[in-house]
Automatic annotation (TrEMBL):
<dbReference type="InterPro" id="IPR011009">
    <property type="entry name" value="Kinase-like_dom_sf"/>
</dbReference>
<dbReference type="InterPro" id="IPR053235">
    <property type="entry name" value="Ser_Thr_kinase"/>
</dbReference>
<dbReference type="InterPro" id="IPR000719">
    <property type="entry name" value="Prot_kinase_dom"/>
</dbReference>
<dbReference type="InterPro" id="IPR010982">
    <property type="entry name" value="Lambda_DNA-bd_dom_sf"/>
</dbReference>
<dbReference type="InterPro" id="IPR001387">
    <property type="entry name" value="Cro/C1-type_HTH"/>
</dbReference>
<dbReference type="GO" id="GO:0005737">
    <property type="term" value="C:cytoplasm"/>
</dbReference>
<dbReference type="Pfam" id="PF01381">
    <property type="entry name" value="HTH_3"/>
</dbReference>
<feature type="domain" description="HTH cro/C1-type">
    <location>
        <begin position="19"/>
        <end position="72"/>
    </location>
</feature>
<dbReference type="Pfam" id="PF00069">
    <property type="entry name" value="Pkinase"/>
</dbReference>
<dbReference type="GO" id="GO:0004674">
    <property type="term" value="F:protein serine/threonine kinase activity"/>
</dbReference>
<dbReference type="GO" id="GO:0005524">
    <property type="term" value="F:ATP binding"/>
</dbReference>
<feature type="domain" description="Protein kinase">
    <location>
        <begin position="73"/>
        <end position="344"/>
    </location>
</feature>
<dbReference type="GO" id="GO:0003677">
    <property type="term" value="F:DNA binding"/>
</dbReference>
<protein>
    <recommendedName>
        <fullName>Protein kinase</fullName>
    </recommendedName>
</protein>
Length: 344
């Protein structure tokens, strides 16, 4: 029999010294922590007194402090210190907890192999407070990333996955990719217009990565500057984060909940009949942003591109690809790649 009931009914207590140290590190009072964590003053005071609270409540407090419940409960792990997971050392936590469009909650970490001189990028997903059915559904989404990477493991514009596993010690699900010495495109996009040659290389790299996915029957679906890493050594754009990828003709693959608004995502991206034209739309919106220096309002891409140094053929290509109506976009990456490739 499937147990569909919640698993967060049990209570936990945390290390008072760790909680106090975390609050001092963030400069937070009881009232400030209460507001950040969206809990009551009594809850914070109970924790400071060493009393037990529900696990979900304690997790909210830990997240508000920029750490995890496991760290606050473990007296041997210093705040901000390192821990190990399988053969990796968690050397640095790179982000706060992030909630994806489909509700998956994850955190990015820099890892170092315990035996080999090798770094890796880890995403740890917190599934502990889900029902059994919810956890199984989310594991299916999470495993889509290593499956997609494995299908295109030798593609120069697709991140290489190393492994994925459930860690019984911390109760997180880990996805571990190769470490790319670079930064997300979103960190540089919008500061000023990219040089035309840089725009061309960005458009080609992303288009080639998408073309590789599409040839394997995969739609990226939610391509944003945050999911494109620019490698420092050669400036190559590498696509990452495939948990929301759509495997064509495999049935529904995303949450039924409404997705948050994203200015790079095609309007039909969260529908089950999504196809490669959703990726073409995102590709164009990102290209327009890079060329223009800011992201224009939806539907005003043509006028924005007229103020750039892009060839008229590329301007027309991006304008068509960014059409709100997918029937007006290009049918495949095979139509847009030659236009960008012949750009002198």
């Amino acid at each position: 029999m499937t147990n569909a009931g919640p698993k967060h009914g049990r209570t936990v207590s945390i290390n008072v010294s760790k909680l106090t140290a975390a609050m001092n590190h963030r400069g937070l009072s009881v009232e400030q922590l209460k507001e950040l964590a969206d809990v009551s003053t009594g809850t914070v005071n109970n924790l400071l007194a060493g009393k037990s609270v529900y696990r979900t409540t304690a997790s909210q407090v830990a997240a508000a402090l920029g750490t995890t419940l496991d760290v606050l409960m473990n007296a041997s792990t210093p705040i901000g210190g390192a821990s190990t997971v399988h053969e990796y050392l968690v050397s640095d936590v790179l982000s706060d907890w992030i909630t994806a469009s489909n509700g998956l909650k994850f955190q990015l970490c820099r890892l170092r192999h315990l035996e080999l001189d090798r770094q890796a990028r880890g995403k740890r997903f917190d599934l502990r407070d889900m029902t059994t059915d919810e956890e199984q559904r989310c594991r299916t989404w999470i495993k889509r990333h290593p499956n997609v990477c494995g299908t295109l493991q030798d593609h120069p514009n697709i991140v290489r996955n190393l492994t994925a596993f459930h860690d019984p010690v911390e109760s997180f699900y880990w996805v571990i990719d190769e470490w790319i010495d670079g930064e997300p495109l979103q960190r540089t996009l919008g500061r000023q217009p990219f040089e035309p040659l840089v725009v061309k290389e960005l458009l080609l790299d992303v288009a080639r990565g998408l073309h590789g996915l599409h040839e394997k029957g995969i739609v990226r679906r939610e391509l944003t500057p945050a999911t494109i890493t620019i490698r420092n050594s050669d400036g190559r754009a590498i696509l990452t984060e495939f948990e929301l990828a759509k495997l064509i003709d495999r049935g529904p693959t995303v949450s039924t909940a409404e997705w948050p608004v994203d200015p790079y995502r095609a309007g039909e991206a969260d529908a089950d009949d999504v196809d490669v034209r959703a990726d073409i739309y995102s590709w164009a919106r990102i290209g327009v942003h890079a060329a223009f220096g800011e992201l224009p309002e939806i539907g005003s891409e043509k006028s924005a591109l007229e103020d750039t140094l892009l060839p008229s053929s590329v301007q027309s290509c991006l304008t068509k690809a960014a059409s709100v109506f997918r029937s007006e976009r290009h049918e495949s990456m095979n139509e847009v790649l030659p236009i960008v490739e012949v750009w002198k």
